[in-house]
Structures are given as C-alpha cells and as structure tokens.
C-alpha cells in the first residue's frame, strides 16, 4: 500500500480555484494543512504531525496494530484520517470504537467534530453536514463517521479501535465481537487501525500484537488481511525531556537505561533519563510497573503485567526486580519435588512442580489442560524423570465424584494411576481472598523458570478480579472466565499448604532414587 505522506507540506489555503482543487486531490497536503486539533495546552492549533505520526503516515498498512506509550498522538491522527476519508471519498463509512460511551462521545466532540467545525468555509460548503448526533455525522456526499462501543451493522471501510487493550481486559465479549464481526466486515482494501496502551500478556490485543510482531521479525510479506505492527515508545518523543539539574538518577536507573540503549541501538540522553525518573516518581509514586505499561521502552515491556484489577502484579514486579524470574532454572538431582494441583469437574487442571533448594522454592515445571483425564497428567509426571515427595490436592479431591464410570474421588483415582506416590489434601479455606493473601505473603520465596513455566506465569500475571460492568468497577471475586484461575488456584495450594505447615521437607527424600515416582523405603 502506498504511503499517505512523503514530505511535510505546510501551506496556507490556496486562493486560486485550480490550485485549490489540485491541493485537495492530494492526501499528503490535506492531512497537513486542512485540519485543526486541540493541543495539550487545550488550545486549538493547526495539525502538524510529530515525528512518530510522520513515521506512521509513511508506513501504515491496510490492517494496523499499534501498542504505544501515552500521548503520542496516534488516536488524533487516525481520527483525522477517518474524517478525511469521509470528506474526500464519497460514500465512505468510517467507524471509531471506544471502550465506553462517554469516551466515545468525548472522542467524537473533541477530535472529529472539532476538526470539521474548524475547516475553511469553502470545504464545509463543498461537503456539508446533512445530519449530526452525539455519536455520528453524515455528509452530503453520502459519507458518514460514527462512533460507539461496537460497530454493528453496515460495512465500514475504515475502522479505528481505540484503547483495545482496555476493551480486551474489561470487555472480552466486545473484543471478540470486534475481531469476529467488525474487522471481517471491512473490505480487503479498507483500513483498520487498532491502538492502545497494553494491559498485560493476555487478551485479544496482546495476541494480535504478538502475531504482528512475529510477522515483522520474520520479514514475511504481508497480505492486505495481515496486521502490520507499529510500536511507539517514549524515548523518541522530543517533548519527553527535562533539565537533569536537581534530578536524582540512581546507578540502578542508569543501568536500566544502558540496557535499553543496547536493545534499541540508540542513545537515551541525560535529559530523557531525567524526564523518565521524574514522571515515575511524580506521576506514579515510583511504581516502575506503571511506567512499563504507560511509557514502555520496548514491545515486551509494553506487555508486562498490568496492575489494573490483578491480584499479584506487585509481587511479580518485585520478583522480577529481585531476579527471581530466570530463563532456565536447573533441576537439582536427588532432591525430591512437590506438586500443587487445581482440579475440577468443569474447570481445567493445573499442576505446579516445585523444588526447594535452601531458602528458595523453585517453580521448575508447569502443566495445564482442559477436558483431559487424570491419566494424561499422571503420564506427564512419570515422563519428567523427577523424584517426588508429596502431591498436594485441593480440598475437594476427597469427595468430588468425576466421570460417569467410577465413583472414586480424584485422590483415589490418582493413587491408582501413581502407585506409591504420597498424596495430601489441603484443607478448605472459607474465604478465597484469605488464600490469595497467603499467596502474596509467600511470593517472596518463589523462583520461576520462565521457559518451563511460561504459561503458568502468564496466568498468574493476569489473574484478576471480575469486572462489574453495571457498576464499572472491579468486584471482590476472581474472574473465572479467562482461563487464568486454574494456575492461580494451583499456586494458592502451595501457599495454603505452607501456611498450614503441611510441607515436610525432612523425610529423607534426597535418598530416594530418581525414578519418576516416590516410593517408601
């Protein structure tokens, strides 16, 4: 697809009719000279693309996904492109999707309608408004721009989804509708823009951006239906600078910036470093995790843990700071392992394999599955070649009846599948939030193998409260619909077993043979 912009052209509106018509046929000229926006100081000014916007104008594709830092101007630019298409391509149907109706109406009034209202009169006479509401505007050339929380009906040829990360996190059904209903309705030569700050390594926005990144990394030629990745950080924004005099930048901060420089292959000036640490302190109270989310330095940083609504974001951030997430943790031979399970009738099964070395509880393996029999997990454990001490099961393992051909409890079935293994049931805790707090309390003892436990880590990063759509707030109970609760509940069995003093590490397990099963001497 040809780029919209080539070189900046900032001119006044031509007075000669022939020259004006020539300029209006050129989208490069129009986007730089026709429109006005409200800047950060709330003043209405001519739109002039910044560096990131210029780069985007040169490289955008039919389908585009944009993980970004805050206030880089992508939302404004894309909405101007929507208006421009509606004005100069008769019969266009442009739609903007926002996370909630209030946000949608604010976008419409402060960007799209403002830009049209401040057009030169001659343009408004050429393309007059025939109808206008709080969420839509229709023009005399048959085009329209509409905005809302979904885009049902019609066949839009331009779609902008704003803050899709938040939509994915809070309204997964809406996110699914965007992916399965709205975007497929856009013709192959239409335009789709999906932009957002990130909300953790989970959900539709993360999946879409990750696939686009994989395509970018591989160099694969994109089809019009593939998404092109556009990542916008904070360090290439000219305005994100501050006089470093009086700003305390620690040795640890400099080490972080030096590491980012090595990754991005460019320098981060002292003025930019001063801006970053000041925003972290003044805006986010020193919370590094919020900087990762709102002002990411890299793609991976953008999709690190989102704090909003999650149970363990603070503990995970501290663990990463302490270096307790490792690419690989070696298994110590001759040292028995413990397993901690979550099982259920309709829910999935999740197992953490943890080995204690000194004061460290090392999460070295993770397994999950839905609709699999217990024999599937028993074979996996036997195939690991590890020595096991005790398997800790949730409270209902002694009385739940699963399957139509047996009246055995889960514990009895597992004992039959793994003869000689020791099983213990963790007592029920009446209030799940107590168990969650126990998990927070013991988190400082945990180490994680990021390779072998990748899926489990993503689950506990994204284990969060259920969103109450009616009251627009996070509820007090966990969300069981996202597929994260099984892994989190399995890890909670470790915390509750530890809290209850059930884990006995003095049974002489180091003397047992490394056979893959625990047997009494």
Q: Give the neighbour order of strands across the main sheet.
A: 5-6-7-4-8-9-3-10
Question: What is the molecular shape?
Answer: elongated
Number of strands: 19
Structural class: alpha/beta
Number of domains: 3
Estimated radius of gyration? 28 Å
**CATH level-3 fold name of the largest domain:** Rossmann fold
Question: According to CATH, what is the class of the largest domain?
Answer: Alpha Beta
Structural features, described:
The structure is a single chain. With 521 residues, this protein is of the alpha/beta class. The protein has three domains: 17-229, P-loop containing nucleotide triphosphate hydrolases (Rossmann fold, 3-Layer(aba) Sandwich); 251-308, no CATH class; 325-511, Nucleotidyltransferase, domain 5, CATH 3.30.420.280. The protein contains 19 helices and 19 strands. It has helices at 17-24, 27-33, 51-59, 74-88, 101-117, 121-126, 164-170, 172-185, 203-218, 251-264, 270-284, 288-294, 299-302, 313-322, 374-383, 410-417, 432-442, 454-462, 485-499, and strands at residues 36-38, 44-46, 63-67, 93-97, 129-132, 136-139, 144-148, 158-162, 191-196, 227-229, 325-326, 337-342, 349-357, 360-369, 388-393, 422-425, 446-449, 465-468, 473-478. An eight-stranded mixed beta sheet has the order 5-6-7-4-8-9-3-10, sandwiched between helices. A seven-stranded mixed beta sheet has the order 11-17-14-13-12-15-16. Mean pLDDT is 87; it is low at 2-8 and 508-521.
């Amino acid at each position: 697809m040809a780029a919209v912009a080539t070189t900046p052209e900032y001119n006044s509106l031509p007075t000669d009719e022939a020259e004006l018509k020539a300029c209006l046929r050129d989208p490069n000229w129009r986007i730089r000279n026709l429109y006005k926006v409200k800047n950060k100081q709330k003043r209405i000014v001519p739109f002039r693309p910044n560096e990131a916007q210029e780069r985007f104008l040169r490289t955008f594709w039919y389908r585009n996904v944009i993980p970004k830092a805050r206030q880089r101007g992508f939302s404004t630019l894309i909405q101007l492109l929507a208006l421009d298409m509606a004005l100069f391509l008769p019969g266009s149907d442009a739609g903007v999707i926002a996370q909630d109706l209030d946000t949608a109406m604010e976008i419409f009034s402060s960007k799209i309608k403002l830009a049209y209202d401040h057009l030169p009169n001659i343009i408004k006479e050429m393309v007059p408004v025939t109808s206008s509401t709080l969420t839509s505007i229709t023009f005399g050339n048959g085009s329209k721009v509409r905005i809302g929380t979904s885009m049902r009906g019609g066949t839009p040829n331009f779609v902008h989804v704003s803050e899709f990360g938040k939509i994915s996190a809070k309204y997964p059904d809406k996110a699914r509708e965007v992916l399965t209903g709205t975007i497929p309705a856009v013709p192959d030569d239409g335009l789709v823009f999906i932009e957002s700050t990130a909300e953790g390594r989970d959900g539709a926005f993360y999946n879409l951006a990750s696939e686009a990144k994989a395509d970018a990394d591989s160099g694969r030629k994109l089809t019009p239906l593939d998404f092109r990745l556009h990542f916008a950080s904070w360090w290439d924004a000219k305005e994100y600078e501050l006089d470093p005099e009086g700003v305390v930048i620690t040795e640890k901060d400099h080490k972080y910036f030096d590491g980012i420089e090595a990754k991005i292959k460019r320098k981060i000036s002292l003025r930019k470093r001063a801006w970053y640490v000041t925003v972290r302190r003044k805006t986010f109270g020193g919370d590094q995790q919020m900087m990762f989310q709102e002002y990411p330095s890299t793609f991976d940083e953008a999709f690190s843990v989102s704090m909003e609504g999650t149970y363990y974001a603070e503990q995970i951030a501290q663990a990463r700071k302490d270096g307790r997430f490792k690419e690989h943790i070696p298994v110590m031979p001759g040292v028995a392992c413990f397993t901690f399970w979550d099982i259920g009738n309709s829910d999935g099964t999740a197992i953490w394999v943890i080995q204690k070395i000194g004061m460290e509880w090392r999460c070295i393996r993770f397994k999950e599955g839905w609709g699999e029999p217990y024999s599937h997990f028993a074979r996996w454990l036997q195939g690991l070649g590890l020595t096991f001490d005790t398997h800790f099961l949730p409270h209902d393992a002694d009385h739940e009846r699963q399957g139509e051909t047996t009246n055995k409890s889960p514990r009895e079935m597992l004992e039959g599948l793994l003869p000689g293994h020791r099983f213990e049931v963790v007592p029920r805790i009446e209030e799940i939030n107590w168990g969650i707090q126990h998990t927070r309390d013991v988190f400082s003892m945990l180490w994680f193998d990021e390779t072998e436990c990748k899926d489990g880590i993503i689950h506990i990063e994204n284990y969060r409260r259920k969103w109450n759509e009616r009251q627009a707030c996070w509820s007090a109970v966990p969300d069981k619909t996202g597929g994260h609760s099984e892994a989190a509940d399995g890890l909670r069995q470790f915390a509750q077993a530890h809290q209850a003093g059930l884990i006995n590490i003095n049974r002489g397990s180091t003397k047992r043979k490394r056979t893959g099963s625990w047997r009494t001497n």
